[in-house]
Amino acid sequence: MSSSMSKLVLGLSCSITLGIVSYVHIKQKADRDKMHEGVIKDIERQQRRKIENLYMLERQNDLTKQLKKEMESS
Hints:
(diamondback moth) hypothetical protein, signal, Pet117, transit peptide
């Protein structure tokens, strides 16, 4: 009886350990994937910001040219 009880406890312990190890690996993979998504979002945000900055620079150049024309004609 003691032998079957010890086998049961050992089996249960191994099952729980396997479950915990599996959970940790799955959680780590999910965290890595989430972090990678954050990096991709950062890159996209930087690209959007670069496009916006280029647009603003172009707009400022146009306004500067317009102002120079107005100053010359005055």
